[in-house]
Amino acid sequence: MKEKEFHYQWWGKGDIDASLGIFFDGFSKVLTAVGILTAVFGMPMADVIGKVVPGIGISIFVGNMWYFFEACQLAKKEKRQNVTAQPFGIGASQLSGWLYLIIGPVYWQTKDSTLALQVGIAASFLGGFIEIIGGIAGRWIVTYVPNAALMGNMASAGLVWLSVVGIAMVFDKPVYGLLPMLIIIMDYLGKADKKFQKLPSGLIAIVVGTVIAWGGGFLTLDNFRLSFANIGFYPPKPDVFDIVAGFKGLIPFLPVILPLQINNFLSTLQGLEAAKVAGDAYPERRSMIMDGVSTLTGALFGSPFPTSVYFGHPGWKAIDARAGFSVVNAVLYLVLCCTGMTSVLMAAIPTEAVMVLLVYVGFAVTDTTFQSVDKKYYPAILLSLMPILFQYIQTIVSSAVQAAGTTVAALTTEQFAAYSVPIRGIEYLGNGAFLSSLLLAGLLAYVVDKKYKRAAAFALALAGCSAVGMIHCEGVSFLSETGVLFGTVYLITAALLYGKAYLFEGR
Q1: What is the pLDDT of residues 353-404, one digit of tens each?
Q2: pLDDT score, position 463
Q3: Helix (H, G, I), strand (E, B), or coil: what is residue 89?
Q4: d(C-alpha 209, C-alpha 502), whole Å
Q5: Contact at 8 Å (CB) between 351 and 209?
Q6: What number is the average pLDDT over the span 425-431?
Q7: Closest alpha carbon to 100 in 309, 305, 392
Q8: What mean pLDDT is predicted for residues 329-335?
Q9: Contact between 324 and 83 (Cβ < 8 Å)
Q10: CB-based contacts of 155: which residues, under 8 Å, 6+ apart?
Q11: Which residues, in sequence order, are CB contacts of 162 under 8 Å at separation 6+?
């Protein structure tokens, strides 16, 4: 008897919630970028809406359709319906890094918004190649970096940049944000009985928040009408000349691009590891190289922002999202980015009502991590949380000081100390947090396993990264005072670990 042909049902009951959560999380970054590029850097709205935004749209379309294809291939190979695609979009650290560490400095120094955008596009183009190199080295990384470190680093980033940031946004607008979050907490985290509930909880939460926001006057018809001002058709147009022109001013920013893109491909790698733990094993090299390809595509069409796999696959899988959300996001991004409809959508639905889904995803990723690793590695996971948490604190402090009309650099350590703010400690731990988080967790995980030589190798990696300014330092620089300080401490730690290896490993 002929075996029945398998057909993957790529739309699951969780795809509505996943579509909404991932779309609004990613698209809020697009709107943030548009606002900063036009209002802060003075770029003409026509250039941003006509070039940058369509470039973002095509890069997100290409990436999401690829991850949809990968999910379909995996489902067909393993004959499973419960395959969930990788969430994908612009990385938060890449957005802020490119805006404030590359595009902004060029604009502030030259007052030339065109040149600033060109340098950002060229930097993203170069960053795409770095992502591809990371894809080639991905299997080596998985082999030698403890899984507890990879998973702990990813869970820490998800908990901080999704849950903590999301909760802060919700409580900043509790009138229409808090009730939707409590709905999600009860239904998803608490797994409340939903026997008679037909609609997804995420959709209900967003509708409730939107109705309250409109009813309370937080969203208005006037703002909604104004959001239609930029409606039009803006097809993506390739422009190699922008990339060539941008490369002329790129050299001073190489120290910024390298660590940001290392963090970016590590983020994708950790997303793949989380998916594997949750039951969906995707090919690392192919997926990571595709991240680089989508970044290159975006840069070719005018986008200065690298792309990445998002945190959250286990959370979306837990609510039976499959691959439909990838198609939804691909099409929505392309349509909205090429028609100027971006601001219309955000004027109709409050961001805080959507962020509640990301709060859940951050918790879900962390929960999956703790369930998937041995209890003996819990200290390594908690250690990995510290740098990323301090990176968030550093961001908050910097933003608060700027809101007061100055900068952190313009203030002294003593001024902060007067209010019990250990600003140097915050900066040391926040600088290069993603990388130091991973390396510190890897060191501790190997110590737990009594593999002292491998732990010593991680201490040497920490020393090397400190020496070139990739962690703890304000920027990449060879043997800076801060880099020498931390590098020396890590070298001593490596020597101690090698001593332990000699004594206890017998070699």
Answers
A1: 877 877 877 787 788 788 878 899 999 999 999 998 898 888 788 778 877 7
A2: 95
A3: strand
A4: 61
A5: no
A6: 88
A7: 305
A8: 92
A9: no
A10: 365, 366, 368, 369, 370, 381, 384
A11: 25, 311, 312, 358, 359, 361, 362, 365
